[in-house]
Amino acid sequence: MLDEVRLAVGEACSRAVGLHIQNRPEEPVTVVLSTDGGRFSVEVADRVPADGMSPSGLGAQLPGTDGERDDVVMDSLPGAMGLAVISGLVEDVEVRPGVDGAVIRMSWPTAQPEC
């Protein structure tokens, strides 16, 4: 499972860094690691607004989401290929596009200690 975590987090970070290089190199990409309720979570956030992207076909206004996975929304996001890879590697993934950027949250179960 460690390989899947490494690949998924790498894809999410590569996507965010690529967006920042093209559109907002002065803004940081944020990565937050946490554990809660028997799960290990990673959130990767970019700060590239949907309407502020370069005109290379990435600047379309993003539709809203209701928090559930929506393949149409995911396909319309910049870096859709990376998102497809992530969704193939991670069972629990949430993509939250917004006017101030997007957050990709990935979560995996933690191993239970043996008694």
From TrEMBL:
User: Which Gene3D superfamilies does the record match to this protein?
Assistant: Histidine kinase-like ATPase, C-terminal domain (3.30.565.10)
Positions of the Histidine kinase/HSP90-like ATPase domain: 2-108
Q: Which UniProt keywords apply?
A: Kinase, Transferase
Q: Name one GO molecular function term.
A: protein serine/threonine kinase activity
Q: Which InterPro entries match?
A: HATPase_C_sf, HATPase_dom
Per the record's keyword annotation, is Kinase included, yes or no?
A: yes
Q: What is this protein called?
A: Serine-protein kinase RsbW
Recorded source organism is Carbonactinospora thermoautotrophica
Species classification: Bacteria, Bacillati, Actinomycetota, Actinomycetes, Kitasatosporales
